[in-house]
UniProtKB/TrEMBL annotation, chain A:
Domain B12-binding N-terminal, first and last residues per copy: 8-102
PANTHER family linked: METHIONINE SYNTHASE (PTHR45833)
B12-binding domain span: 102-233
Protein's recorded name: B12-binding domain-containing protein
Keywords: Cobalt, Metal-binding
InterPro entries per the UniProt record, alphabetical: Cbl-bd_cap (IPR003759), Cobalamin-bd (IPR006158), Cobalamin-bd_sf (IPR036724), Met_Synthase/Corrinoid (IPR050554), Meth_synthase_dom (IPR036594)
UniProt cross-references to Pfam families, sorted A to Z: B12-binding (PF02310), B12-binding_2 (PF02607)
Gene3D superfamilies noted in UniProt: Cobalamin-binding domain, Methionine synthase domain
Amino acid sequence: MADEEDIILSELDDEELVLQMHDDLYDGLKDEIEEGVRILLDRGWTPYDVLTKALVAGMTIVGADFRDGILFVPEVLLAANAMKAGMAILKPLLAETGAPKVGKMVIGTVKGDIHDIGKNLVGMMMEGAGFEVVDIGINNPVENYIAALEREQADILGMSALLTTTMPYMKVVIDTMKEKGMREDYIVLVGGAPLNEEFGKAIGADAYCRDAAVAVQTAKDYMSRKHNKLAAG
Amino acid sequence: MRPLLKGYAMSTSLSRLLETRDWILADGATGTNLFNMGLTAGEAPELWNTDRPDNIRALYRGAVEAGSDLFLTNTFGGNASRLKLHDAQGRVRELNRVGASLGREIADAAGRPVVVAGSMGPTGEIMVPMGALTHELAVEMFHEQAEGLKEGGVDVLWVETISSPEEFAAAAEACAKAGMPWCGTMSFDTAGRTMMGVTSAAMVALVDQLANPPLAFGANCGVGAADLMRTLLGFVAAGPERPIIAKGNAGIPKYHDGHIHYDGTPELMAEYAVLARDAGATIIGGCCGTMPEHLASMRRALEERPRGARPTLDEIAEKLGGFSSTSDGTGADEGAGRERRGRRRG
């Protein structure tokens, strides 16, 4: 860009500002995102509209470029950090206004697996897409997953493993859910570098997600199916 | 006879081996082998160095007996950050020293020159500015591990499966602090790049600008043998000054009856070893799923099959299977981004 002239966010009209916020998210500019969120709220936007039209829409572009190999983890982490800063302002307001919820996910790496970069990335991207994410951390035995799912009344279980030695534990979790008769109450998504679709099917997960962007899209698809099913009665 | 350098009298110097040999066969998998010996999900493999040393001896011996000229120690996750998750962060020095000394023992009994390479895997933390790990702390953690490996008698340090350039640089600095030669490989598992977006060409540039460059550099793990070969061609195209390491996985993991099996056969890995040599790699080995029978088959192929022309991508795909992505980020399409609005400075 030839001229790096400063843009004054408050001087942009709503449409321009939202587009600028998409770019600022893309560039991981945290302070600018916080400022943009405040300006929109001051102009009378509902917290839900700020979330979906400015933040989630912006993160969708980031997710698509990550999926297409244009952006990589460092850029996505910076974008997610900026998104999170905006979310911190919106979260209490969303709760007050009773805005619709996208869905809730419990996520953690399986017992023995301490590699949490992928899990963190999925968590951030899911939050970026408007999901509520309960991160139960690393090295989780099956009891942790079950307890968190029940306590949080979650919709989705996300399990991550980076090691071939820890992948099989995902099946232990799913089998335990079946034994307890609760498997069908949740959408189970699995991910991690050594996994593939065939593995996901073999252990009884709903889907294997190749990367964080795919996880978000898959979660959205399954949530809309779930809603349809509920509506159909 | 040339006097041996002090401190190297008992050990095999990798640099000397590199001078005298056309190719060097490295080892295969650590995790897959230990898993087959009963390592369960939840255990840190490094704890076996002290708890089950005979299994670790068997692991090393498996590679040596299959013909490896170099093997890695069972210390991949032996840094404070990883061991902390098993509440063993106070045992970094010990676990690395023991893992290395078991290796020394097996190598010295081999009856031929075998290099013991001290494995150092990633911290698993994200470095600043994206994450919280500072350069200083990363150097400190790698250095602590390096000192343990040095005490245990490794010939060379072996930094592997790294995805971030910052972490690679921190490890290089730690190796310098320990006064040890080192080799370094990154894992190219995301559309031909590392998770952090490093291309094969970018790694060559990164290695060349380090104050303490490695003896050899390359790629390990990643997706399958075909992808690793494409990365290798990327290195060669960038005209590196150092020997190249290729340590690819034995195919893709499949799930059978409660355990993981890699679908790469010994024949496929033999094909991969020859292709890697013909493409320009000097140190050739396997990674996940590569068992002693794969290594023996690779050794035989490297010894028996004559050197051929550098393979093309089409030949690689034909012999090893297709690639996981259409591009690896090094071609003409590099930098083709989204059409952007004006970038703003805050």
